Amino acid sequence: MLKEWLCRAYLQRFGRERVVLSVENFKGHRNEARFLALLVLILLGIATPARFTNPSLTPAQSSPSPDFSIVIEPTQLTVEAGFSASSTISISSQNGFSGSISLQASDSSILGVNILSFKLNPSTLSLRSGETKTSILTLSPTSSEIFNFSINVTGTSGSLSHSASLLAQVVSFGIGPWGGANLGVYPGLSITGGVQLYSYNGFQGNVTLSLTVSPTVTNGPIITLSSIQVFLPRNEQAGADLSISTSPDTPGGNYTIGITATQGQLSVSTTIIVEVSSNLIPDFVLWQYYNYMTVHAGTPGSLDLTFFSEFGFVANLVLSASIDPVVGDGPRISFASPNVTLVGSGSEASEMVVYTDQFTPEQTYSVTITAMGGGVSHYLRNSLQIIDPWYTLSAQPASLTVEQGSNSSALVTEGSPDRFFGNISMNATVSPNQTNGLSISFNPGSFYSEGFYVGSTTLIAHAGPSTPLGTYTVSVTGTSGPTLYMFTITVTVIPPSPRGYLFYAAGYEGLAYPGGTTTLLNNFTDAGNVPMRVTGLSFATNFGTFDESTNLPLQLRPGESSVLRFVISIPSGTTPGNHAIIVTVKWEYYNPQLSQWIGANPLTVTGNLPIDQTPSPPPPTESQQPTPPIFPIPSVDPGMLRDFLLLVAGVAPGTWSIIEMAGALYIGLVLIAVLVLVSRERVATNSLRGTQLNPTIVICPSCHFVISSQARFCSRCGRKLS
Prior knowledge:
Helices cover about 10% and strands about 50% of the residues. The protein is mainly β. It has 7 domains: about 1-50, no CATH class; about 65-170, Immunoglobulins (Immunoglobulin-like), CATH 2.60.40.10; about 180-275, Immunoglobulin-like, CATH 2.60.40.2310; about 285-385, Immunoglobulins (Immunoglobulin-like, Sandwich); about 390-495, Sandwich (Immunoglobulin-like), CATH 2.60.40.10; about 500-635, Immunoglobulins (Immunoglobulin-like), CATH 2.60.40; about 635-720, no CATH class.
């Protein structure tokens, strides 16, 4: 049916006579061709037999075999060391399974099975079809080892075997004294000790502390804990202070203090022995971890010091240090805490700091550290060795000369004798520091040192126009963390070199015609940094030569501009049209270093002066005449002209070859030509539209000036209008 409908639809659309298409008329009947192609594809799809849906190839579905499953809850078990914990194992019949299942547990830890004992109750289960039964797995650590264990439980029934696993985490905590397990105190004094708790393998919880004292005697020591309940975070430490007070009547002897920590089923203990004796002289111990130090020149070094109170010693200790030998630029010693207070027991800490710079002599020194207080003093000695700096810095050149109003630079290079790695930040100070004085910057401000790779930066010295002349000392510092390296360079500021530059632009004002006069406008600008003056100005045309002498010389200061007007007479026999005009400017600039005027090369430029026809009526007055735009004639050298052309072409000035200059000139001229053509076309189009839409205005055929249709003469060129 579908095939017949498609054929009928095609005949109704295109007719029977167009069923067969020739090659010639096929090109003109693309719609018919597309429809025919679609029709052929659909017919092929309908006619194609279903080759891939043979139901005889579908596999037969088989019934599932009887089986069982095993599940452990919970899968992660926390066991306190020395105690037991249990987990439930569930065995379920699936697909009609029935039979006996044997259970077995094993430890996959590398520590071996002797660390944990396993008990399955029951170890054998009998299941009927659709039934679920459980067994209890009990874990008991058999040693004090604190680890995590992976436990596998396997159920076996004939050829069927399934397993499930759980993670057993054995946790605990420990206790110990801090400040010493053996303490001594003079009768009538007090000391402080303490206990420290330690979390093992993730233990966390509130721990309760209790204590006992033995023997118990009249006037015995009074011992208290700062807290009887301490929260111990997971895998961290916590503790409590132990205060031990005696009186002059406290019997001498040794007292045993027992501290017990309890949490749930866990309980651990420690002991501290306190000796009360009038033979114990209160004192302190000064201790250092190392008895030698090695410090790089330019980098500070430090040494940790610890002070222990013995037998109730209470005092404020004052720290000092001396160094031998004493040399110029030698190491300097200070303390982070020059005063340390001991309160009868326990310990306090301070830090000795050694300061050096790159000028510190590289040798071995002997340092003596003294602590004095409470009528007691102790000292210890340390060996200090100063070695070469981590890195060095140097500048090339080491001295700079910079003119006022300009910059000068030097390359700062880093050397790493010990393969230093780190970021070095640069800074500088200038002496003398004056108002509008010399300024220093770095590019980049910091750089990264990578061992044998030599890092560098550029030091830039800038002198402003008013920076005082003279020689400056620049102290350059490179800092990386606590490491510092410093060097100096000199910068001399000198007056700027005299640079005389003249910018000149020319144009004319008024209507130039035979027998009349016109005013030439001459715009001079001092573009240099010294005074200049114009000493001569002449104009050469084919109808005469003209010299300006009345208003010369014209003197200008740097940045100053001035316009000089010069009137020329046009002979009556001059032919209308464009006439070449050559302008010659003589000028000179002042050299303050020589205290004299220096003559510059004369400036010669060429332009065109348009001469119009003599108007029949009297020419318009000067106030009625439009002022033509002044065309610029810059006095520049070839390099300045090159930069001007490059800017026109949209390229930044720089160092360019002759080919690049020619290309930039060509692009600039093409852009200017396109802009001129577009502007002329728009003016012509707008003017034509204006005359068509507004019949009250006309366009002068000579100068193309738009004027009123009622005017008899052009107000710009004076031409008579018909």
